[in-house]
Amino acid sequence: MHPFAYAVAGDTDEAVAMVTADPDTSFLAGGTTQLDLMKDGVLRPERLVDITRLPLKGITHTDTAIQAGALTTMEELAADPVVRERLPFVREALLLGASTQLRNMATIGGNLLQRARCRYFRDPAVAACNKRTPGSGCAAITGAHRMHAILGTSDHCIALHASDVAVPLTALDAVVHIQGADGPRSIPLTQFYLPPDDTPDIENLLQHGELITAVEIPLLPERARSHYIKVRDRVSYEFALASAGVALVIEDGIVQEARIALGGVGTLPWRAWDAEDLLHGSRADAAAFRSAAEAALQGARPLPGTAFKVELAKRTLVRTLETVAGAQS
Ligand code: SF4
Question: Is residue 293's pLDDT more than 90?
């Protein structure tokens, strides 16, 4: 591993100032992505600023939302009684997102910033990776890309966004609160991530030195039901081939409210706006659910290795919709 200096920040302002001042300095929280990438030689910071002692841990509740400090672990968020009761698909995505050991170490802020799982990105011996080395090409497009994205891709990168919990959080219009050298700001998760386009190295709106301090998660209406389904090659310790996070309010067989996002298929957590529009006011039946799934995958651009994902994602979404609708009947 490339040698690095280590510092502990005393407060949030100091942490932000330390990282902002030096492009080769990074934050260190749970480290479950960062240390892997450093060991692999993908990231080579000169200094890490440990933020784990900052007061960014814990969950607060209001009548309409919960706010999780960025250092809240995945396990702590999954165990929160309000998440369990009012946001079951968030809890399911957290529990399916990582092993118990990782959930006890990984923070919610870090989870949202996890890097691409593309094997070429994580192997510096491979020259062609636009995300790691802008302008170098993309080895995955002509290489092994079975685990890659089919929505939001570009000719420069097809890497998948691998977070599970970001899927229901995107469906819920969660907001990330950020602290930077110029002060705080907040960004809806639906706008936070950037598609690769011709700059795959720029993954989100966070500037160097800005720190996610909290995630605000709106609650669903009490009459809503939600569910997260993740389809993968094995039942544990594996990323999604396709996943769906769905919340529905159904009254008298009619969909009053639909929130839908997909995982395992997009270069970012994929909000299925077209599917939601189609379901609003429609009957909650198999035909409508299939039409919604067709709409959700309309823009898919599969490659030979990912062609199977189109139908898989549709069926995953239909099954999730049917499960949620069944829970309301
Ligand atoms: Fe790099 Fe993206 Fe291509 Fe993977 S898919 S090799 S991360 S440019």
Answer: yes
Can you give the pTM of this predicted structure?
A: 0.97
Question: Using an 8 Å Cβ cutoff, are 105 and 137 in contact?
Answer: no
Task: With respect to residue 6, please indicate whether it lies within any of the assigned structural domains.
Answer: yes
- Spatial CA neighbour of 76 closest among 33, 31, 109: 109
Number of domains the chain is built from: 2
Distance from the CA of 139 to the center of ligand 1, in angstroms? 6
With respect to residue 142, please indicate whether it lies within any of the assigned structural domains.
Answer: no
* Ligand 1 probe mutation, 115, 141, 157, 268, most atoms within 8 A of CB: 157
Q: How far is the CA of 148 from the centre of ligand 1 (A)?
A: 9
Q: Is the CB of 259 under 6 A from ligand 1?
A: no
Host domain of residue 40 = 1-49
85 CA → ligand 1 middle, Å: 39
Residue ID of nearest Cα to ligand 1 atom 7:
121
The domain that holds 20 is classified in CATH as 3.30.43.10
Chain segment 125-153, per-residue pLDDT in tens: 999 999 999 999 999 999 999 999 999 99
Domain annotation covers residue 76:
no
pLDDT in tens, 154-169: 999 999 999 999 999 9
**240 CA distance to ligand 1 centroid (A)?**
18
Place of tokens 């009619």: 254
Between the alpha carbon of residue 131 and those of residues 74, 197, 321, the distances in Å are 27, 11, 34
Q: Considering the domain boundaries, does residue 252 fall inside one?
A: yes
